[in-house]
Design goal:
Distance between the termini: 13 Å
CATH topology: Nucleotidyltransferase, domain 5
Strand content: 15-25%
Number of domains: 1
Structural class: alpha/beta
CATH class: Alpha Beta
Strand order of the largest sheet: 3-2-1-4-5
Order of helices and strands: EEEHEHEH
Radius of gyration: 14 Å
Largest sheet: 5 strands, mixed
Helix content: 25-40%
Low-confidence stretches: none
Mean pLDDT: 88
């Protein structure tokens, strides 16, 4: 049984979810609200130390037709930084509709729930072959 952390990367916040390969059920864990890279990675490092994941999943946004945009490049860079800093395998998962399926009230922080949707998609679609 391996622990997996999922991330919904954003410029203002990063949503984090957790799950494991035995139960294959993602759940929201936390929201990192730091904007500075060092503070973000310090918070992520603390989560990695606490939970000891075997791999990391990062949502990769794109337009509805699958074409990548500016945030796609930022998410790829974030995923590369995660791999480089923490030496863990990183899997990119299509996140086109992760935030859209959450009914949120105005101003509500949903990033951790979006991360859970991304991680659940990994368990449902990608983990079969890994």
């Amino acid at each position: 049984m391996d622990t997996v952390l999922g991330f919904d990367f954003g410029i203002k916040r990063i949503g984090v979810a957790i799950g494991n390969t035995m139960i294959r059920q993602a759940q929201p864990l936390s929201v990192i609200a730091a904007i500075a890279n060092e503070a973000r990675f310090a918070a992520i490092g603390a989560l990695i130390s606490e939970w000891g994941p075997a791999r990391i999943v990062v949502g990769l946004p794109s337009h509805p037709d699958g074409v990548e945009h500016e945030m796609s490049a930022r998410c790829r860079r974030f995923a590369n930084q995660m791999h480089g800093r923490f030496n863990l395998p990183v899997v990119l998962v299509d996140e086109r509709y992760s935030s859209a399926v959450i009914a949120a009230k105005r101003g509500e922080v949903i990033d951790d729930r979006a991360a859970a949707i991304i991680l659940q998609q990994y368990f449902d679609d990608y983990a079969q072959s890994n």
